[in-house]
Amino acid sequence: MLDWNDPIASFVDTDAVTKTNEATKPKNTAELVTDLPNSSKLLSESLAPVRAEDKRIINGEGDINQLAPFKYPWAWNYFLNANKNHWTPLDVNMTKDIQDYNHRLTTEEKHVYENVLAYLTTSDILAMRNIGLAVMEKMTAPELQIYQARQVFEEAMHTWTYQHCIETIGLDQSEIYNRYRVVPEIYQKIKMANDKLSSVMKPDMDLKNPDELDNFVHSYLFFAGVFEGCWFYNGFSPIFSLQRRGLMTGTAEQLQYIMRDEVMHSGFGMRVVKEIVKEENLTLDEQRLRDMWDESEAAEITYANYLLKEPILGYNAEDHIEHFRFIANRRARQMNIFEPFPGAENRLAWLDEQANMRKEKNFFETRVTEYQTGAALNWD
Ligand SMILES: [Fe+2]
Ligand SMILES: [Fe+2]
């Protein structure tokens, strides 16, 4: 009968086991100690405790395998808050979107819907690779890496979400996924991000070298402040404008979840950059920042004029572009740098309200838990 405390006992030759044990039994305690290979030496060695004040965002030389004591408790709080926005795309009912896409959207609205997905899906792959392959390995405090590990997971979830929308609606996948390559107006934004990513995705990058450090800081600032903070934030708004009219509400609901994540990614990344600037005693180059904003604005204008070459009801290219400038100023204030577009107007006053899911009654009918746990957060 099988002994569940020792399931293989009944299959073992007990005589043989006894003989083996006799042969290998140590003769006395002294032999036991001296026979041990260098393990006793290792045990006698010890390491100094980790001190919070020795931690650094980058270029730290301490033990990064120990979470606490925290030097950056705000980073741990980001991780805790991120876990309050947990969902999968399968949680959202997409049935109405199939009907809307096939029977209610105009040709211009379909163009907007498809191209927003085409742009976002490639962007999220870039965002995932940036954090997972270029940024995370350079951090030397585990509380930062843990939030970034969560961020990598979230970017993967976002990619799944777009794929779920594309698949559910029945769009031509090879065409949609290749669109950023064949449409120059989309490719311009992707290329700008990809070039920056390529310049920092080097395992041998030496952040003690001032030029390399400068490049890394400006690249991370671009990804956090522009790519996630403006282009994503602004990128969802054409779909939210459809949602306001009762169209593609399933997709919009998915994007509301993603937007929460992206606002946190942006806030976290900018905070990290600010801390690096402080710790490494850096000065951000104003001309370099000016160039970043100008290049980003130019790419957004090109994109918006393609996306909205024909305006849709309640949303046009001019509003989209002006709103990019308005959000860019907001991100700059968060970074304590100059506002790049002084006087930019809030053309989409409804967006912040709509992005804030606390006011979306229908949304909560399916995800009450998220409402309760996420309600305390400030998503800006
Ligand atoms: Fe994302
Ligand atoms: Fe992100």
CATH architecture classification name: Orthogonal Bundle
Give the proportion of residues in helices.
55-70%
Q: What is the name of the CATH topology?
A: Ribonucleotide Reductase, subunit A
The hetero compounds bound to this protein are: fe (ii) ion
- In CATH terms, the superfamily is Ribonucleotide Reductase, subunit A
Q: What is the molecular shape?
A: globular
Indicate the proportion of strand residues.
under 5%
CATH class: Mainly Alpha
Whole-angstrom Rg: 27 Å
Low-confidence stretches: 24-34, 359-377
Main sheet characteristics: none
Number of β-strand runs? 0
SS field, number of helical segments:
17
What's the SSE pattern?
A: HHHHHHHHHHHHHHHHH
Q: Give the CA-CA distance, first to last residue.
A: 64 Å
> What number of structural domains do the residues give?
1
Can you tag this structure with a few keywords?
380 residues; mainly alpha; Ribonucleotide Reductase, subunit A; binds fe (ii) ion
Short description:
This protein has 380 residues and is mainly alpha-helical.
Give the helices and strands, then pairings:
Blueprint: H1 14-24, H2 29-35, H3 39-44, H4 73-82, H5 95-103, H6 107-135, H7 142-169, H8 173-182, H9 184-200, H10 210-235, H11 237-244, H12 249-279, H13 286-307, H14 317-335, H15 349-355, H16 361-366, H17 368-374
Helix pairs in contact: 4-7, 6-7, 6-8, 6-9, 6-10, 7-12, 8-9, 9-10, 9-13, 10-12, 10-13, 10-14, 11-12, 13-14
The structure holds fe (ii) ion (2 copies).
The site of one fe (ii) ion has 6 residues, from helix 6, helix 7 and helix 12.
Overview of the structural elements:
With 380 residues, the chain is mainly alpha-helical. It is 67% helix and 0% strand. It has helices spanning 14-24, 29-35, 39-44, 73-82, 95-103, 107-135, 142-169, 173-182, 184-200, 210-235, 237-244, 249-279, 286-307, 317-335, 349-355, 361-366, 368-374. It is globular, with a radius of gyration of 27 Å. It starts with 13 loop residues before the first helix and ends in a 6-residue tail after the last helix. Bound molecules: fe (ii) ion (2 copies). The site of one fe (ii) ion has 5 residues, from helix 12.
